[in-house]
């Protein structure tokens, strides 16, 4: 990915045009997929009932959800700042907050859940950090957040037990933890693998780039003190997202307890990471219907919660729009 970013400007006109066309096609495909998923959700719920629920939301609860999601951005910026300080040129926390808000705004506006990350990499590279270091910083910040998330998902699946169905979903979610741990262990020592492995066709280039970051990964993920702080910050960020869902459910008068929300919401967030729709729309609604059914919420209620959460994410990202317009480019 880094090499693609670095070499794009030097591509011949025809190749650059082909990449632009490919990017536009991917954008259209994701829009269409989001539309199909949302249509499938709409067909599976009672739309008038959803409309009634949407209008029944308490403004205070809605504001509380937005505040929680702004808090997610603040905690994530602190986590990112700690990672960058460890592997690259230290940056003022105020700047990292600004760039994180801008990145989150673009996450809601761009076709995938990682579009804002590309914006953060680009912006950080304008402040004395190389593109490689900026990429590594964002990647490792994301990984530290994902690590805490899969631990929470595993705990939630264990708590839900057989109430979570189908069983294949339960096993798949639970397997995310050992799979991630194994992948991170390989990542941390990738530069010590035989060089012939890194020269494999198709995989060689990506493995070579990841191998260059293996030392950074060990410095971030295997350092006991630093990794613990990052884990706790990540857990706090995901906890705030859980509180946002809980606040919305409370504002709608839905019977969702905080322990139940804690068990379900991390899995919804994890599934929404799949970069197959526009800013997670459609995927999040489908995941919410499946997961919230395990704690007794109907499809109408789950879809309403998911839509409101998506709207709250957009509102929480508006400070990033203002910062962008003021010149944080």
What does this structure look like?
The chain is mainly α and 329 residues long. The chain has one domain (2-325). It has 15 helices and no strands. The two termini are 21 Å apart. The model is unreliable at 1-11 (pLDDT under 50).
Write a concise keyword list for the protein shown above:
single chain, 329 residues, mainly alpha
Short synopsis of the structure:
About 80% of the residues lie in helices and about 0% in strands.
Number of helical segments with 4 or more residues = 15
The number of E-state strands comes to 0
Largest sheet: none
Helicity level, as a percent range?
over 70%
Tally of individual domains: 1
Seen as an oligomer or otherwise, the chain set is single chain
Estimate the mean pLDDT confidence: 80
Distance between the termini: 21 Å
Strand content: under 5%
As residue ranges, the low-confidence spans are 1-11
* Classification by helices and strands: mainly alpha
Give the overall silhouette.
Answer: globular
User: What is the element string, with H for helices and E for strands?
Assistant: HHHHHHHHHHHHHHH
Rg, Å, rounded: 20 Å
């Amino acid at each position: 990915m880094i090499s693609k970013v670095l070499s794009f400007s030097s591509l011949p006109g025809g190749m650059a045009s082909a990449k632009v066309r490919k990017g536009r096609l991917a954008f259209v495909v994701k829009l269409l997929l989001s539309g199909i998923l949302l249509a499938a959700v709409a067909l599976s719920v009672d739309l008038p009932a959803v409309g009634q629920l949407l209008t029944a939301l308490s403004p205070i609860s809605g504001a509380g959800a937005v505040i929680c999601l702004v808090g997610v951005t603040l905690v994530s910026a602190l986590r990112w700042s700690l990672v960058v300080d460890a592997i690259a040129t230290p940056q003022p926390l105020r700047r990292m907050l600004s760039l994180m808000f801008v990145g989150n705004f673009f996450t809601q506006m761009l076709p995938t859940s990682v579009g804002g990350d590309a914006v953060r990499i680009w912006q950080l590279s304008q402040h004395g950090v190389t593109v490689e270091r900026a990429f590594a910083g964002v990647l490792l910040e994301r990984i530290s957040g994902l690590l805490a998330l899969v631990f929470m998902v595993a705990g939630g699946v264990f708590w839900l037990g057989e109430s979570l169905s189908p069983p294949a979903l339960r096993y798949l979610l639970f397997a995310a933890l050992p799979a991630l741990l194994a992948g991170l262990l390989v990542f941390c020592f990738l530069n010590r693998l035989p060089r012939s492995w890194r020269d494999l066709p198709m995989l060689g280039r990506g493995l070579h780039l990841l191998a260059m970051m293996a030392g950074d990964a060990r410095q971030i993920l295997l350092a006991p003190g630093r990794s613990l702080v990052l884990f706790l910050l990540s857990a706090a960020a995901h906890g705030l997202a859980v509180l946002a869902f809980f606040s919305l459910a409370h504002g709608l008068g839905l019977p969702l307890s905080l322990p139940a929300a804690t068990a379900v919401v991390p899995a919804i967030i994890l599934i929404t990471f799949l970069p197959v729709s526009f800013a997670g729309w459609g995927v999040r609604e489908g995941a919410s219907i499946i997961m919230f059914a395990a704690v007794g919420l109907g499809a109408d209620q789950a879809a309403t919660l998911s839509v409101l959460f998506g709207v709250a994410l957009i509102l929480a990202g508006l400070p990033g729009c203002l910062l962008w317009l003021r010149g944080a480019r």
